[in-house]
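Quick check before the chapter quiz. The format below is the same one you will see on the exam, so make sure you can read both the input and the output lines.
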Amino acid sequence: MQKEGEYEFHFAHNGLEALQMLLAMPDFDVILSDINMPEMDGRTFLKQLKASSTFNFIPVIILSSLESSNDRIELLEAGASDFVLKPFNPQELKIRVRNLLR
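Here is the expected output.
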């Protein structure tokens, strides 16, 4: 049983591993994803996730050091629910996650 305000985390090293994890455990409430990852980057992961009728409803927060507004716009247009620049404030991230889960 999970207490309010507590979260259970699962970690993947790249987008490919994250997709495999979703297939094994499809009940995620929100996904936090970096952009720069080996094997499958965050952009590709996001596009594949949003192309899937099984997982396209899961909100995705992108964490990245990309500061270009064009990059952020591209990711939001691809289906990202939110975008947080690194380094980030943990309290801000917690609030953004909580807002998406409402």
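If your answer matched, good. The chain has a mean pLDDT of 90.
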